Structure formats: structure tokens, C-alpha cells
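Your task
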Amino acid sequence: MTIPPAEHNLRAGLRITRVLSAYLPLRLARWVEKRSAVRVSLPQGVRHEVVSAYGVRCEWLLPEDYHKDRVLLYLHGGGFVYGLTVVHRQMVAHLAQATGISTLLVDYRLAPEHPFPAALDDCVSAYRWLLKQGFAAQDIVIAGDSAGGNLTIATLMKLRDSGDPLPAAAACLSPVTDMTERDGQFETVYDPVLHPRAARTFNHAYVAGGDARNPLISPAFGDWRGLPPLLIHAGEDEILRQDAEQSEASARAAGVDVHLEIYPRMWHVWQINLSLPQARQSLADIARFLKAHLAEKQST
């Protein structure tokens, strides 16, 4: 199959990112990330506001003419060790425009300084803060990519087990759901973005010697019953494809309304590359899914 020139050129550039993620010291990588995020660059018509949600730093992304009574809670990726990046803000702003609803980005605490359960606690706190602000659970949806996909599912499980009302639906982009050591799992596929060495480093930083089979660390080992409708997108050429497929199987076996879509030739969280037609298609599909479930809940 012939790869379009734009995709081919993008793949070539991703090789540098892949190597840097595996070998650049975390402190230096974070410095570079912070320097690039000094100025938040968002699409025209999207307003940015910083807010504290029970002490958790969050950011509102507010598109023009947004539905003020509906909200998307977004949990960013970054291996549990990186914070909000420019590309994440741009991708989520695109999603906010596509859904037409207010979007709250959670700037949760990071490993290794703050390992599990810090990030999960922050995400749960942000959700409960939304409820306190007057948003009904049926008017909230959750989405997240990579580590944020893990936090999306773990947040749902923790909320359910705590007796909190659950959101209308959730979407996961390339989620990592199994943090255990799996011999050879990272070597079966060449992911143009996620290096096996980086993936292991991220996992160790978050688990920090805890039990990787804890369902709130690795949702793959959790009870999926009672979770809201779930959409999962993953790439054909990513080392976490198995996690997405396992998640779909676990959710379906538990009676959850779940749909998995594998995008041909795509890599880990390709959606951040908004120049890709496949990125825009995935985000449009996710937006339609979330909007449909918000409308469905409001009509019942």
C-alpha cells in the first residue's frame, strides 16, 4: 500500500521524537516542554482559562457559542511523567470545537515525584468538582489519550466503586491499560512514536514498586461492569494496540456498550498530528460519539 507523501514525511520526523523520548533525561525533556508551552497557542475562537478544582490545576478550553450546561473532562497523556503540551492543548481545542461544549483539561500531578495514586486522585477530584459546580453527571463526558486513557477508565472504576454518579460516556485514544511486565509485548510491533524503553520507564515511574495488577493502576485487571458507553481508538502500528483490544474484550464481556476502531497504519496517539486526515477523522468520530450520548442522556 502506498503511503501518502504527507504521512510519509511525518513518519520520518517522528523518529527523532521516538529516540528522544527513550534517551533524553526527564529533567531536560520537561525543560524543553515547558519552554515550548510558554505561550498557549489555540485555534481562533477558543478561549483559555486556568482554574483550581479542589486544589488541582485545570484549564478550561471554551469554544465560541459552547453549551454551558455540558462539559468534556479531558485527561492528557504523556506517560504519567509529562504535563500538558502545546500539541495536547491544540488537539483538545479541536475536539472542544467539534463537540461545541466546554472542556476541562486536568493538569494532574506527575510521576516519578508523585506516583500512583496522585494522578488518579486529581482526576477524580476534578470530576467531583464539576458536579459541585452544578454539572449533572449525565451532562459530563470523559476522554483521555495514552496515560490519560488509563486514567479515564480508572476514574470511572473508582467513581463507580465510591458510589458517585457516572458520566454519560467516555472515549479513550490509545489507552495503556496493562502496566505489568509483559515479555516481548513491546517488541512485536514497531511504533513510530512510542519507544519500548520509554514505555517501560513511564510505567515504572507511575507504579513505583506498587502492585501493577491493581485494577486502578492496570484497568485490564479490573471489573468493567456498570461502566458507561465507551469508544476506543487505537492505531494498527502501535505497541499498545493489544491494550485497546483487551479493553474492548473486557468491556464487552462485562456488558458495557463498547466500540473499538483500529486505524490502519496509525501509531500511538496520532490524533495530535492535526495535519493528518486520519487525526481529524478520529477526532470527528469521537466528537460525534460524545455528543450523541450527551443528547441521549438529556432526552431520557
User: Anything to note?
Assistant: Strands lie at 46-53, 56-63, 67-75, 101-106, 140-145, 169-173, 230-235, 258-263. The first strand starts at residue 46 and ends at 53.
